[in-house]
Here is the input.
Amino acid sequence: MNISRVPPVRFLELEMEKKRTEKDAASARPLASSVKTVLQRLAPTKGRDPLGKIQQVRDMWHQAVGAEIAQRSTPERWREGVLTVVVDTAPLTSELQCFGEQALVADLAKMGLEGIHSIRFETGRPRGATRGEGYES
Here is the structure.
């Protein structure tokens, strides 16, 4: 029976291995948190309701601009601090861009819309708008 003799592990070797393991774990943490952040943003889960969020934004929009303008405009997208609003006429789009954007951003931030920094206005027919006067088929 031939048993090969294994040299004993030294304390210094154990400490070096421990430090190497800690260093590897520390370098992997930022990647793990970055991946988690990206997945939370791109992949909805049970805890996140993207449709519920845009509905909350639409309710805030209605309160901020009033019934008349809210009837002629609809928030369509809310992403990374930019709210995209579709407005039914070009003159109203221009007026909102020139005179109302900064005030509306401030009002929406006060109402609790976190991280908003700008509003992008587009001319077109808001989703859910009924066909009628002023709309082409």
